[in-house]
């Protein structure tokens, strides 16, 4: 059965849109035809078509038996309608979400002329076009079933509260106020401090469709129009006093009418000053506590207008069901929100917060989770600065989209960073990652691609472990898929990895990605790779052959190739633009480990600075080079290397064959040495020491004048 909307935003067909309750079923004015029985509201639309069928059958319209008449003489409200004569139209069942209104069935609903146009219980006349109450238990059950399904559709807090409001207004009540604890308790934690309720949402029949001036005469012509909103005349915050009337009602859990003694004292405390103007007199307001799994988390107030029939005792059961389902849904939504927050934080901390800015290369990255309900995954990327102005580019993918996958990804990423700090070749890094994955478990498998770019030699070394191949976009706009040996995934064990060295021309862009970008249920991985290559080439044509596309815009364009059904996996994307370092900006020397090496190093550095027009740095560079070279010569057994790099800063690198790294320490007044690194730390912009497979490199940087 199709569920019909209950919100006032979409009125029922055939109903005057200016009526304040456009979503409610109406009691239509009975159309009388001479000699014909009155039709029920459900069969009225088909009356015109039935006349033709009756005429063809030799009958008159007035000969039809009233559909609502109880032929057995029993109570018409609880009996089945009589079967119509052959050729008549069978009445349609009422929509599931909006219960049928038995009191509005028309004059023939009870079969007694004296009861025509009157409400059966009260005897009051029924006004055509006005809502009638739910009286049958079946009506209430159908309404509760449809309303709880609507509430259950929500995933987050706002969706559930909105579902409660839209399900009840205007079908069950004319307005609703929802108060929730601030802050909401999560799970089993015990909140401390006073209980504070915050007005989370209000809903009511809109004023432009309200022809009867609201619930009370609060808005006067001389008052601003915003006072017509419920939130303007009720308190936003309410502190529940221990032992007070509101606390007693909330502790009782069961809904109560507003005219009950407990509610009369609790509602002013909840609504604040002026709130009593909102509550109509009589049983036209229900205060329903919202109780979650462990504790009360709020309250809901259902309101009906004075001209509408009051709530009945059975409506308290309806309010209790709505409050219970809403409270349990809110409890689950809060838990889900916390889990989503933990997942977001875990994923965020597992990935680089910011990318480094190494010399000679520019970087950009993107990460997209698989779906809103699967925020964590095993995809990662990284960029690790290496000695000699090199940079390691890493992208990997652990199987799965769970917390376990994210945890394994974090361990493998940390292992890769440690191995990169040892300056191991790419194939050795993958070999050690494979061993680490096997130590984590027998089913811990991942793919990974590890590349090292050298901006001085304009070369890149790549090793692959079962990962999709990278794509290189040249400066002229040509895009090619690099031929890299695929290798076996990490975690298989007993396999060898192979590295290849390729040219990395200046102006080219290398794109590393995970399989979520190119593979889905709608296409295989190689079709996706070809589409990616074509997308890069088409994007490069937009900027011309001499101007590569901006990195950030290029990443966005690549992600735009994803269609509606292409998000089966999370996506990690790393783009590197190779600028390189020109040979004229590099000076490189070998120094023998002898006492004259520091003096020779000072002379060579002075000449290079003069050639580059950086004489203002001569004194600082000579002092620092002399100190670092002196420390290297003291312990080295092989030639010492000295390299100067001119980029946006001046970088000096001194390498030797001793693996022990120097440490900064405070020299005593009686010490003859130990002040070299202290000077470097004071004068240099940055400095550091990195261990290599053949020794170490000590480097420092100075700002260019």
From TrEMBL:
<feature type="compositionally biased region" description="Polar residues">
    <location>
        <begin position="42"/>
        <end position="51"/>
    </location>
</feature>
<dbReference type="Pfam" id="PF13581">
    <property type="entry name" value="HATPase_c_2"/>
</dbReference>
<dbReference type="GO" id="GO:0005524">
    <property type="term" value="F:ATP binding"/>
</dbReference>
<feature type="domain" description="PPM-type phosphatase">
    <location>
        <begin position="361"/>
        <end position="578"/>
    </location>
</feature>
<protein>
    <recommendedName>
        <fullName>protein-serine/threonine phosphatase</fullName>
        <ecNumber>3.1.3.16</ecNumber>
    </recommendedName>
</protein>
<keyword id="KW-0904">Protein phosphatase</keyword>
<feature type="compositionally biased region" description="Low complexity">
    <location>
        <begin position="25"/>
        <end position="41"/>
    </location>
</feature>
<dbReference type="InterPro" id="IPR003594">
    <property type="entry name" value="HATPase_dom"/>
</dbReference>
<keyword id="KW-0378">Hydrolase</keyword>
<feature type="region of interest" description="Disordered">
    <location>
        <begin position="1"/>
        <end position="138"/>
    </location>
</feature>
<keyword id="KW-0460">Magnesium</keyword>
<keyword id="KW-0067">ATP-binding</keyword>
<dbReference type="GO" id="GO:0046872">
    <property type="term" value="F:metal ion binding"/>
</dbReference>
<dbReference type="InterPro" id="IPR052016">
    <property type="entry name" value="Bact_Sigma-Reg"/>
</dbReference>
<keyword id="KW-0479">Metal-binding</keyword>
<dbReference type="GO" id="GO:0016301">
    <property type="term" value="F:kinase activity"/>
</dbReference>
<dbReference type="InterPro" id="IPR036890">
    <property type="entry name" value="HATPase_C_sf"/>
</dbReference>
<keyword id="KW-0418">Kinase</keyword>
<dbReference type="InterPro" id="IPR001932">
    <property type="entry name" value="PPM-type_phosphatase-like_dom"/>
</dbReference>
<keyword id="KW-0464">Manganese</keyword>
<keyword id="KW-0547">Nucleotide-binding</keyword>
<dbReference type="GO" id="GO:0004722">
    <property type="term" value="F:protein serine/threonine phosphatase activity"/>
</dbReference>
<dbReference type="InterPro" id="IPR036457">
    <property type="entry name" value="PPM-type-like_dom_sf"/>
</dbReference>
<keyword id="KW-0597">Phosphoprotein</keyword>
<dbReference type="Pfam" id="PF07228">
    <property type="entry name" value="SpoIIE"/>
</dbReference>
<feature type="compositionally biased region" description="Basic and acidic residues">
    <location>
        <begin position="110"/>
        <end position="122"/>
    </location>
</feature>
<keyword id="KW-0808">Transferase</keyword>
<dbReference type="InterPro" id="IPR029016">
    <property type="entry name" value="GAF-like_dom_sf"/>
</dbReference>
<comment type="function">
    <text>Primarily acts as an independent SigF regulator that is sensitive to the osmosensory signal, mediating the cross talk of PknD with the SigF regulon. Possesses both phosphatase and kinase activities. The kinase domain functions as a classic anti-sigma factor-like kinase to phosphorylate the anti-anti-sigma factor domain at the canonical regulatory site, and the phosphatase domain antagonizes this activity.</text>
</comment>
């Amino acid at each position: 059965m199709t569920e019909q909307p209950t919100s006032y935003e979409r009125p029922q067909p055939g109903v005057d849109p200016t009526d304040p309750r456009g979503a409610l079923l109406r009691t239509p004015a009975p159309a009388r035809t001479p000699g014909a029985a009155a039709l029920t509201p459900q069969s009225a639309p088909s009356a015109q078509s039935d006349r033709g069928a009756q005429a063809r059958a030799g009958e008159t319209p007035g000969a039809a038996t009233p559909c609502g008449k109880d032929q057995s003489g029993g109570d018409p409200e609880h009996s089945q309608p009589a079967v119509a004569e052959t050729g008549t139209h069978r009445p349609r069942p009422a929509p599931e979400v909006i219960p049928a209104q038995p009191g509005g069935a028309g004059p023939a609903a009870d079969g007694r002329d004296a009861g025509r146009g009157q409400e059966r219980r009260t005897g009051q006349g029924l006004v055509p076009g006005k809502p009638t109450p739910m009286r049958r238990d079946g009506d209430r059950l159908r309404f509760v079933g449809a309303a709880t399904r609507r509430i259950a559709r929500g995933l987050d807090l706002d969706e559930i509260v909105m579902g409660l409001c839209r399900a009840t207004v205007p079908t069950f009540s004319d307005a609703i106020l929802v108060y929730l604890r601030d802050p909401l308790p999560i799970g089993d934690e015990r909140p401390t401090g006073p209980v504070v309720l915050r007005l989370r949402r209000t809903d009511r029949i809109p004023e432009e469709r309200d022809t009867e001036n609201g619930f009370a005469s609060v808005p006067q012509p001389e008052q601003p129009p915003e006072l017509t909103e419920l939130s303007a005349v009720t308190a936003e915050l309410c502190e529940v006093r221990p032992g007070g009337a509101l606390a007693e009602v909330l502790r009782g859990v069961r809904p109560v009418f507003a005219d009950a003694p407990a509610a009369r004292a609790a509602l002013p405390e909840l609504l604040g000053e002026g709130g009593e103007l909102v509550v109509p007199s009589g049983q036209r307001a229900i205060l329903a506590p919202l109780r979650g799994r462990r504790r009360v988390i709020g309250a809901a107030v259902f309101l009906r207008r004075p001209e509408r029939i009051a709530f009945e005792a059975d409506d308290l059961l309806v309010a209790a069901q709505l409050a219970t389902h809403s409270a349990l849904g809110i409890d689950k939504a809060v838990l889900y929100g916390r889990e989503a927050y933990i997942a977001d934080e875990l994923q965020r901390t597992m990935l680089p917060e910011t990318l480094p800015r190494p010399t000679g290369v520019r970087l950009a990255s993107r990460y997209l989770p698989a779906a809103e309900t699967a925020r964590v995954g095993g995809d990662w990327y990284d960029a690790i600065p290496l000695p000699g102005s090199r940079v390691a580019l890493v992208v990997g993918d652990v199987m799965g989209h769970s917390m376990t996958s994210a945890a394994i990804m974090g361990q493998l990423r940390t292992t890769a960073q440690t191995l990169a700090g040892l300056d191991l070749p790419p194939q050795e890094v993958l070999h050690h990652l494979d061993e680490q994955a096997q130590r984590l478990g027998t089913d811990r498998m991942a793919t990974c691609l590890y590349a090292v770019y050298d901006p001085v030699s304009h070369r890149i070394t790549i090793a692959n472990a079962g990962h999709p191949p990278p794509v290189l976009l040249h400066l002229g706009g040509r895009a090619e898929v690099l031929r890299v040996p695929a290798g076996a995934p990490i975690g298989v064990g007993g396999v060898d990895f192979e590295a290849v060295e390729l040219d990395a021309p200046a102006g080219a862009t290398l794109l590393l990605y995970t399989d979520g970008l190119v593979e889905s249920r709608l296409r295989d991985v190689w079709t996706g790779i070809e589409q990616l290559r074509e997308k890069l080439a088409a994007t490069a044509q937009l900027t011309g052959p001499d101007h590569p596309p901006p990195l950030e815009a290029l990443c966005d364009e690549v992600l735009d190739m994803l269609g509606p059904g292409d998000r089966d996996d999370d996506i990690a994307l790393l783009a590197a633009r190779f600028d390189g370092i020109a040979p004229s900006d590099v000076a490189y020397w070998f120094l023998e480990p002898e006492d004259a090496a520091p003096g020779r190093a000072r002379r060579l550095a002075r000449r290079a600075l003069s050639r580059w027009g950086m004489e203002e740095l001569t004194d600082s560079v000579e002092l620092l080079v002399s100190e670092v070279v002196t420390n290297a010569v003291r312990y080295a057994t092989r030639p010492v290397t000295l390299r100067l790099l001119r980029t946006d800063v001046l970088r000096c690198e001194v390498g030797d064959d001793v693996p022990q790294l120097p440490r900064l320490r405070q020299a005593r007044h009686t010490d003859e040495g130990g002040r070299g690194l202290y000077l470097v730390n004071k004068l240099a912009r940055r400095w550091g020491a990195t261990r290599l497979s053949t020794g170490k490199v000590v480097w420092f940087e100075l700002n260019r004048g």
